[in-house]
Amino acid sequence: MLSLLRPLAILAMLSVGSLANAGTIRLTDGTRIPGHATGYDEATEVLSWMGDDGQARELHLDKLDKRSTYSVLKSQVPRDKGEGQLQLANFTRDIELFAHAVRHYGYAEKADPSLKPEIDKQMAILRSMAAKWGMERAREAADKGDLKTAEKWLEKIIVKLPDEPEAAEAKRLIDNYYAKVKAEKTKEIDAHQDEVLVKGLAKAKKAYDSMLAKNKKGLQSKSGSAPVREWEAAAKHGKKALTEIDKFEKKHPEKYTELLGGYRKTVNQQIIEIYMHLANHYSTRSSYNKALDQVNQALAIDPKSTEALSMRNRIQDASSRGLGWWN
Fold first, then answer.
1. CATH topology assigned to domain 186-321
2. Which of 2, 44, 179, 189 has the fewest Cβ atoms nearer than 10 Å?
3. Where exactly are the structural domains of the chain?
4. CA angle, corner 210, sides to 263 and 309, nearest 5?
5. Neighbours of 282 (CB within 10 A)
6. How far is residue 87's CA from residue 104's CA, in Å, rounded to a whole number?
């Protein structure tokens, strides 16, 4: 792994005017110091910082909040400096800001296309790091009994980093959490003893269960067209479940309104999740138009979906840069 210190050396390569760009650096104890960087000594790992109060400070790397340092460096490395952007991207990757790192790799390639072989090499390192990092988050969540969050991280690894070794492990682990998490969402319906409700929603429940099965199969499928087929089928089953819920509600207006509203919301959330899987799948393969189509279908269900809106912004950004991404 490249040293985290390399990008700080960028400061030495910039002009005095660039170094004078104002910013606010944050220390590990939370202290914020407005000012600008004046230099960096790699031998001592000390960043020289001139505060807006006129006080000069010598700040050791261990005392710096690395995200804050990234923000300062980002403002001081010109986008048209390919080598500087490449080093900044490596630093950003190494402090686990993966999406930001990919953005800077994009800037580096745009500024200097000859850097592409090195960028591809560093992107491979990023994907490996991101997969390991995601798996750590999944295990941490599982150890705390938060299976929903664990499942979320496993799904991210499977969909966004399908060629990494951790994806195979994630597919195996998903069985341990998936059924429990999904059952929790419909436990109120499942536990209901009303015969009319149980019988009337039997088809909806069957379609919902089929959707979950297809979604899980998509997550566990090998890369290629197989996941897409499973997720598209899953979305169809989800829509069928909604149709059956609507039919039942028309026969029994008002009596089950609140219960059915919650069930409908659960199904819609699951369908949106499936569309996000498809959008991620297409985005990682640079099929941005197809990815946006999936996002638009999700937004048709919930125009305010923060996940879908964020996904749309990321896809549009990735499309404009012409480089794959991982968030």
1. 1.25.40
2. 44
3. 6-111, 186-321
4. 60
5. 20
6. 9
Cβ atoms of 124 and 130 within 8 Å: the answer is no
- Name the least confident of 61-75, 193-207, 208-222: 61-75
3-state SS track over 140-171: HHHHCCCHHHHHHHHHHHHHHCCCCHHHHHHH
Q: What does the DSSP 8-state code read for residue 14?
A: S
Q: Which fold has domain 6-111?
A: SH3 type barrels. (2.30.30)
pTM: 0.69
Enter the tokens of residue 31: 């202290």
**Residues 135/147, Cβ–Cβ less than 8 Å:** no
Taking the C-alpha atoms of residue 45 and residue 62, their distance in angstroms, rounded to an integer, is 8
According to DSSP, the residues that pair with 37 across neighbouring strands are 49
- Select from 216, 209, 204 the least CA-distant residue to 176: 216
User: Which one, of 270, 253, 143, lies nearest residue 216 by Cα?
Assistant: 270
Name the least confident of 42-56, 212-226, 231-245, 265-279.
Answer: 42-56
State the residue for tokens 């650096």.
Answer: 25
Q: Which of 289, 304, 291 is nearest to 159 (CA)?
A: 291
Q: Where is 51: in which H helix or E strand? A: strand 46-51
